[in-house]
Structures are given as C-alpha cells and as structure tokens.
Design a protein that fits this description.
- Helix content is 41%, strand content 17%.
- By secondary structure, it is α/β, with parallel strands linked by helices.
Length: 220
Amino acid sequence: FYSVFEAELAEHIPVIHATIGGNRFVGRTVAGNRRGLLVPNTTSDLELQHLRNSLPDAVVVQRVEERLSALGNIVAANDYVALVHPDTDRETEDVIADVLGVEVFRQTVGGQALVGSYSKFTNQGGMVHPRTSLEDIEELSSLLQVPLVAGTVNRGSDVLGGGMVVNDFSAFCGLDTTGTEISVIESIFKLQKQQQQQQHSGQQQQSLVAGMRASLIDQL
C-alpha cells in the first residue's frame, strides 16, 4: 500500500508513515495544504513530534481542540479556500484560517454537512457529491474559484473523501473505481495536462543529456 504512494510521490513530496491517536486511517483525521497540517486533539505528543520532524520546516503542524475530531471529514481545503462543517467551533475556524492561510466558509455539499467526506478539490478543480444541484455547484465553484463537477468513486460511491486522495499533479482512488469515473477525475483535476507536462519535461532532460553526451564524444 505505502509503496504505491512512494513510487508516485517520493520524488516530489515527503511520504510519511504515521498514526493519529494510534490509528492508521490518517486521511479522515487530518486536514491540510502546502502551508500547514491540522491534527485532532487525540494525537499523541510522540505522533505530533514525528510529523514535525518528518515534514519541511515551512509546513506548520498544529493540534486542534475540536469536538468534531475527524478533521478530514469536516474540512475540505486547497491552498486558498477551506470549506468547514457548519457546527465547527469558532476557535477552530480561526486556527484553520491562520495555519492553512486560507479563507474559511461554513458550508454544506449536496445537503451534507461533512464537507470533507462529500467533496474533494485542489487548486485545479474539484468534485462534489453526485446529488449536488447545478445551482449549488455554480455557487461553490464561484466561492472556490475552480471548476467543479458532481461525481462518484468506487463504482458509484458518493463518499469522495473516503475513496480518493488527490493533489495538483496526482490522484489515487479505490480499486473499484470505474474507467468512466477515472476519466472524470483526470479531466476535472487537470491531471492529464500535468502528466503531459511531466513527460515533456522528461523528454527535454533526455534530449539535453543526449546533446551533452554527443558533445563530449566529439571533443574526445
């Protein structure tokens, strides 16, 4: 399981083995972006220190005293905006804004208060609960300033947060996810464009190396 993430991400960002409150389902318990990582009050001092030691100094790791402790379910964020559960504590809202450096909006998605479970968005685009109305999608898209689409993962599951992990250049989804669902994910998050850019960059590097090798051979 870990090796899949390491193979795709290790060259770009740290891939850390961690637990939160002794549990391995870290995605549902934490929320963050490139500026910071928020962890629940169930996080032990040892776990907190491990995260701080493993992440770059520029990433702030902050423990949050929030009664709705599954932060990954109640917060959805990119590098500019965060949506939060309508019942989130005011102090937590302030911490999210401060640590993640984002604008915070209390919101529901498709009538669901667990915005982190029923929406997923990056700086490129986002996906929301399949029963979200067109009017709500347009409103959320305007709020987030990214294109949105209603969709599913894992062959029709509406729990997007439980079936998909995505950033600006890569996405991972459950094994049951269909080809059509994957196509929608790649399109809305602009992942094909990112892959093409990476391939182009790799080809340029190969051409540069080949040119340098040919030049050295000529000199010899």
